[in-house]
Amino acid sequence: MTSGTTFLDRLRERVRATGGVLAVGLNPDSSRLPDDCREYDYPRRAFNRRIVDATHEEVAAYTVNPAFYEDPSGWTALAETVAYVRGRGVPVVVDGKWTDVEAGSPRTDLLDRADAVTLSPFCGRDALASVLDRDCGGFVVCRTPNRGAADLQDRELATGEEAENEETGEADDETEAQESVAERVATLAGEWAADCEADVGLLVGGPSDDLEALRAAAPDLPFLVVGGATNDPEVAEFAVPEERASAAAEDGLSEGVGLVEVSREVVYAGETAGRRGGVDAYASAARQSARRLKRQLNRQR
Questions:
Q1: Angle 43-55/279-298 helices, nearest 10 degrees?
Q2: Average pLDDT for runs of 10 along the chain of length 301
Q3: 185 domain-assigned
Q4: pTM of the predicted model, to two decimals?
Q5: Which is it for the CA torsion 120, 130, 219, 94, positive or negative?
């Protein structure tokens, strides 16, 4: 980590430099790598480096998911990918959805190399103290884009407070004000952000309507928006906190702080375009895809 600057400071500089909020997930499937990458000792490291070289001018941050690197050579490929990205001056978010990070563990070593991590909130604030009480970024998992997220994250919690009748302005005895589990997580994360050293944000996903509700619950937190950006680019509208979005409108798009992540759309752009000539073809297609997606997201900001 860079001394003297916070994660959000570094992210803000990248958003300003690239003119966008695009994040790219470097999570390659070994079975889908170009043949010329397989000649290296660490094929995923070699592939990731070429993708980074091709796209870093368009990308505000990269994310890495440790689950894609859980094999004998994976941790080396992951750690060296993070170091390479940081060497390019680009922030890295470790999308581990972790809870406790014990001192001296491989997780701590990786977090020391990176800028931010995603965190599971369901064990409570004390379980996250090892991350929240250090100088880093922490995106709290709030609403994920997978279909099964509704099983828990969309469940409503009865608060015990009476809702106000919109027509009469009086308490409605038959209706209780309710919030979803995701909205409660958003509120909690806002409370944690006010009392910790880390820069706290939310990991969110789903359609723009869901993100709009979460933005209302957490107006001051940056979002890491995952999944669905290509199908619903309007999610970019909610990535940046409201005050930052207003400042961005006045001073230029690059001033807002937030991220919208894509992965396969960039990493495998060469594959979907039918370019099977090798990693150079993949890198060229990745650059074009990243540039297009950044512009597409910016139109919604």
A1: 50
A2: 77 94 95 88 95 97 96 93 96 93 78 94 92 94 91 82 57 63 94 94 90 92 85 79 55 65 92 67 93 89 68
A3: no
A4: 0.87
A5: negative
* Count of domains for the chain: 1
Q: Strand, helix or coil at 89?
A: coil
Which secondary structure element, helix H or strand E, spans residue 184, and what is its range?
helix 181-193
- 165, part of any domain: no
Q: Is 97 a catalytic residue?
A: yes
Catalytically annotated residue among 12, 45, 97, 301: 97
Tell me, what CATH number does 99's domain have?
3.20.20.70
**pLDDT tens string 34-79:** 888 888 999 999 999 999 999 999 999 999 999 999 998 999 999 9
CA-to-CA separations, 52 to 45, 81, 88, 254, in angstroms, rounded: 10, 9, 9, 21
Rounded to whole angstroms, the Cα distance separating 240 from 270 reads 30
